[in-house]
Write a structure and sequence with these properties.
Number of domains of chain A: 1
Radius of gyration of chain A: 24 Å
CATH class of chain A: Mainly Alpha
Radius of gyration of chain B: 22 Å
Largest interface: A-B, 53 and 47 residues
Order of helices and strands of chain B: HHHHHHHHHHHHH
Number of helices of chain B: 13
Number of strands of chain B: 0
Oligomer: heterodimer
CATH topology of chain A: MetI-like fold
Helix content of chain A: over 70%
Order of helices and strands of chain A: HHHHHHHHHHHHH
Chain lengths: 308, 310
Amino acid sequence: MGRYVTSRLLQALFIVVAITLGVFLILRVTAGDPARVRAPVFSSPEVIEQYRADFGTDRSIPEQLGSFAGGVVKGDLGESFRFQKPVTELIGEALPRTLQLALLALLMSVCIAVVLGVLAARHPGSPWDWMASAVAAVGQSAPVFWVGLLLSTYLAVKLGLFPAGGYDGFKSLILPAFTAALSIVPTELRVLRESMRSTLRQEYVRAARASGVPEWKITFKYALRNASLPLLTVIGVDVGYLLGGVIVAEVVFNFPGIGQLALVALNARDYPLVQGITIVTASVFVLVNLAIDLLYTVVDPRIRLEAA
Amino acid sequence: MSATTPLAASGSAPAPARTRASALSSLRGRGNWQLWVGGTVLALIALAALLAPLVAPYDPNRQDLTMVLTSPGDVHWAGTDGIGRDLLSRLIYGARVSLGVAGLGMALSIAVGVGAGMLAVFGGKWSERIVLRTIDVQLAFPYILLAVAITSAVRPSFGVLVGLMALAGWAGAARVVRSVALSERGKDYVRAAEMVGASRVRIARKYVFPSVLPSVLVLAPMQMSAMIVFEATLSFLGMGVRPPTATWGGIMLEGKDYLADAWWITTLTGLAIFVTALSLMLIGDGLQRLTGQRIDAIGGTVETRKEGAA
């Protein structure tokens, strides 16, 4: 177990370094000069040159890479070109908000999937089953940002039930989280219904039923635990989709999180900020995947993890 | 056998009367409403997109500043946007970009996927390893980030978006193709052909490839549906084909500023995306029932997960 975690962490480190290096190079070899974006329009060449010197983009790429890597080792991600603030400070503000949003979205999606999925699996052909299919199909075809804008238009702007945007306490999280949740509900729902159906057909469920265990206990205590294993897999695979959903939700609801920050940073060609966000999101991404693999052993003790 | 009927039913091109009649009876016999509803809706949208200059009531880029933010009515059926452009006309022209990007992207994705999947099965040990590794990496990487990174590096154009769609889809297609081809290759008749000395290329082309086709046929509309949504999402994030070209996602991005005053811009445009994507999903579902194929992209991923974890 210890060996497994160490080897996975090393792999994770390698992936994060590779992605960061890739982003670092792509930013510098493609078109767009941060100094020109930052400088006021019609600036003289001297002013632009001054910005380049300030940003350090007048140095050679290996030199820039050296100072960037040196900073990262010391926990310093540099200063944002656009905001003139340390990158760690900007990310430190935005990341907790985005994590709150993502966690709430994950929680909501799992709740919807479990409730609808279990009901649909227990009563095949019932309205619940039909509804689960409809939610899955609609959720897959309806663009997340459209649903978000509809919620925003009708629940927030017209009825005033929720704040229309921004970050201001728990209430401002509900609509964006629900929007982001919709990006992964369809797959979760489908997988859970399918695995629940096959689990309910197992011998041990019949044995439990025969010995008089109440139905709710069979469903939630015995069957759900086994049926949730594929759900866990899907969640691991879907973390990427959730991330996409969160970015979209942040844009729709003007939510000041990492997604918005990343889009602003990319448009401003704010190298340090883009690099910092890349390191942080890639790390979170690989760590979540590792956590999910470890969770397998909790849900199903038969699974053993071995160093790959 | 059924590989030809769905094409005749779902395509927008009118099929010869006789094929059509036989396709119809075979569909009726199976009671496949999904294919009919999806096919009809998609054909209508595709037709409108194709004949946009004839169908659209106005020039999609003509601004009428006396008619800014007009609500849907007799003059502008779907209302106007913030600078007085006719929304219905923009939606019709937007369908061109949407269907074009998703359609070509799907074709490219499927082509690459079939190539890679077959290579993994027939190319020998090393190409199998390389292909599988690449698929894993591609699927593990959150592609929305990849798309955002690419579009910020290169100016997004029609061609770039088609490439991005293919990038998002090829790995899933390759995985499906590989698993079908692998199981077909293990069948007795293919082994017999191998034994009497048929070459690998011949086996791949003559025996295995035809058996892959039904799955590809089911996969294609499903991928295209996801790509319609994906392209719109990218445009909504400001990473689609540049304005003033009308794209569905772009219209919604502009409409986002008028949520309180002009509900129709975002509501109706989203509805267009939704209906188009849903019609493709229905076609995929219908084909799935018709061919008896069950494509489970998720099933494929579950497999690899277990390899890594167990």
